[in-house]
Structure formats: C-alpha cells, structure tokens
Amino acid sequence: MTYRYLLFYKPYDVLSQFTDELGRRTLKEFISVPDVYTVGRLDRDSEGLLLLTNDGPMQHRLSHPRFGHRRQYWVQVECGAKSQPIEQAIAQLQTGVTIRGYRTKPAQASVIPVPDLPPRNPPIRYRKQIPTTWLEIVLTEGKNRQVRRMTAAVGYPTLRLVRSALFLPAPKTASKTELALTLSGLLPGQWRSLSPPEVRSLPRSVHSRA
Fold first, then answer.
1. Which of 43, 66, 98, 181 has the largest CB neighbor count within 10 A?
2. pTM for this predicted structure
3. Which domains does the chain have, with CATH numbers?
C-alpha cells in the first residue's frame, strides 16, 4: 500500500470531513484522493492547515491528545471598550485560562502584525468603532473551539481564526527537532503532497511503514 500525506488549506465555511447529510461544503469539493482522512480537525468557521493521510496508525497517533504536537494559529480579535490591557490578556493565555471547567495548558501568545492572508469570503463583521488586533497563539492541545473560548475568556472575542502551522517532532536522527508544515505556497482550497524529505522527517514511530 502506498501511503499518502496531504497538506490542505481549508477555506472558511468548509467542514473537515468528506460527507454531510445537510449538504454543507466538505473536503470532497477540493480533494479527490481516495481514502485519506484528517489528522485532527478545524471548525467550519476556521481556516488554515489540515494534514490528511491514509496511514491509519499515523492518523490515530497524531490525533491522540497525548501526542501533543504544536499547532500555531493567527487570530484576529476584537478589542472592545471593556477589554483588559492586551498585555494582561496575553499573560493569562501564557499561563492558562479556565474554560468550561477545564484549565488550559500554558500557551505561547503574542501580538503580531497583520498577516499576509487572502481575504476571507465572506469577510468578517466590521465595526468601525471597535478596533481589532492579531495574535499568534501556539497550543499543544486541541479541545473543541479552544482558541475561541480562550480569547473570549480574557476579553478578546475571536473574529477570524487561521491555523498557520503544524510542528511535528522529527526523528532523533534528523537534522532538525521538528518538522514545520506551513501555509507557504498554498491558497484557500489548494492542497499538496508532502515532499519526500518531509515524509522522511515525520515522527519515526509513525513513519516506519511509509
């Protein structure tokens, strides 16, 4: 069996699955490769990187919470009049916040310049009197709608959410400690196969049969 590893730039308003009884947009509209499945998911209203594969053991392992690979997000948040200073909000994200009775793990968080992204279709809600800012947040866990709930918990509701990178631990024999997969070279709705060097840099325990 030939294993396939695909990197897909999921657009807004697309489900992270191939079928939907309600007729909503799915991955089938963009990816014709048979028998591949997502490693993790993105919400319908989120955008960005999805890794897909037909390597079942790898898909299972990388999706398991214990694996804890890093996920990087670019997040446009709303800065309302009642928002606390952004420095305090970032400090809370870095130490962990409580959402629905769960204490999140410490995250990397910082303010970033407006990233070079394609316009979202449809565009986000724009309110002239309420400014926005962009954050970069890196998590090692993936609870349901976690980024949105985290930013809301510190007083900065999410308007746009883009997963911009995935970092997978590389084999000990590799020259780098992580395999970095990014949006580079992709537009929303496009996908590519991982290159041979990228496949060789997948975690050894899940790459042994590739």
1. 181
2. 0.92
3. 5-66+167-207 (3.30.70.580), 70-165 (3.30.70.1560)
